[in-house]
Amino acid sequence: PVPRRRRRGASPRRRVGRPPTPRPFPAQLRTSKDERNMKPTSLKEMQAAKGYVPFKCIYKHSDGREIDVNAGCYLSCEDIGIICSLFMVLWCILLALYVLLLKAALDTDEKD
Hints:
Elements: H1 43-50, E1 56-60, E2 66-70, H2 77-107
Antiparallel strand pairs: 1-2
């Protein structure tokens, strides 16, 4: 038997009986089950989609424009209150621990 020459571009192993599967164009590729493009581009869009309202200070500029300044790092007033109350509890616990340790140190002080 004479060996056959391989054609250019042909792979050495070909599937017999099945045509090659066509590759989809990039526009046909689906990245998710949902075909709508709902990916937000900014934090403001994400908050607007959820109905989240951050705490803002709104004032009128001298030329008549309304300027809004985010006072709470894009957090709502409720979130700021929760964070502040947690810090207050933390500092109260630390102060109570300090007072207990100071009392224990003063009670164990040697008296002559």
